[in-house]
């Protein structure tokens, strides 16, 4: 697979100089294609379309493993967007597609100085005059790059480099380092269908979490619902499946039915409390019960270890919503999961594959009511997938539903969740953690609450010493652990 480096940025930021620098550093394995950019052409759309099809043919015919593009299709798209003539479109399927997109920036005074210094060789155009005089035009031009990355985020590495802060040699070094990154890490579908042994190091910090029981030594606090939440009809229709499946028995066929985005129920406001400092020894927890099901709603009590006081706001908001939409809330266990720690570049905090929280495997017969999950994170929010897929011929005993979905669907994930947002989803909602694709480690706190009518007895789950229960914990396979069979 060819690696296609696209260099973008306003005029005068150093794209051509960087392109030549990269060509020299990469040697015979690379080819530089400098795209002529006619800013004064009145029929920009037709001009760009013809030009980029020629470039696509040239790339396909090249014998080099790395292609360097001084500007890309996105230059024309950004110009039209900055002029207010159109919205940014998805990258055309019939054109080359960059595997790496790098945008150079420069403070405006430095950029203008660079333009003036080269005007004897490159005449100043009317567009450059507008760039200099219209700050909103410059901002919209830069915004176009980030908008396009919504469509490219599962296949392209993106960076912005300030060429006033970094030398061309330093930028080249960073780019060459990124050329060695495995591009399959960008797309959770690739991770679901790939070699599981190769995937495990990506989330090793979660695998190595503290698992011993009875390490929660402090007292507990309790919470009760103190606000009744009503959702209007418009919201219910927009997120219909997540309301319709409340109290309904789990059924594999529902993966084939129309899906809707997860429901946003609010955001964490006390963010300093939610963000756990790295030096604090906060225990990780996996599916720890904080409330036990009971026949009497008056006896339903939340007992949360004091070690998790910082999650009080999150838990309270979840309780308010669930008790508002589920009349029989007391028929469900409530489980808390917390993951906290450093996520290194090109790794994930948790297993980075597509899955649902609430898949009921063959071990559970008869099936029980659909489970519901609420999730939030301060960084690297979850991606969601709302297209249905055909499960008619699948056998949950031997077929990995999540691998089948990953192989048969190519729909882009929704990134509808922002940091600190709390989302609600039913047990069929496919989603995935994401890889830290940045250059720096990220301190991430992820929390999840699941309401389920069944006992979570998987070996390794966290014991809550403040609740009276004795469950026999067993080792068992999850749906995600089944072979990659279709």
Describe it.
This protein is α/β, with parallel strands linked by helices. It has two domains: about 180 residues, Rossmann fold (3-Layer(aba) Sandwich), CATH 3.40.50.300; about 290 residues. It contains 15 helices and 15 strands. The strands form four sheets. It has a six-stranded antiparallel sheet. Strands 2-3-1-4-5 form a five-stranded parallel sheet, sandwiched between helices. Helix 2 links the parallel strand 2 and strand 3. Helix 1 crosses helix 7. The chain is elongated, with a radius of gyration of 26 Å. The protein starts with a strand and ends in a 34-residue tail after the last strand. The model has no long low-confidence stretch (mean pLDDT about 90).
Helix and strand topology:
Layout: E1 3-9, H1 15-26, E2 30-34, H2 44-61, E3 66-70, H3 73-82, E4 100-105, H4 108-117, H5 126-133, H6 135-152, E5 157-162, H7 168-179, H8 188-193, H9 196-199, H10 204-207, E6 220-221, H11 233-238, H12 240-244, E7 263-267, H13 271-274, E8 285-291, E9 304-305, H14 312-325, E10 333-343, E11 372-377, E12 383-385, H15 401-408, E13 421-426, E14 430-432, E15 442-452
Parallel strand pairs: 1-3, 1-4, 2-3, 4-5
Antiparallel strand pairs: 6-9, 7-13, 8-10, 10-15, 11-13, 11-15, 12-14
Protein name: Thymidylate kinase
Organism: Adineta steineri
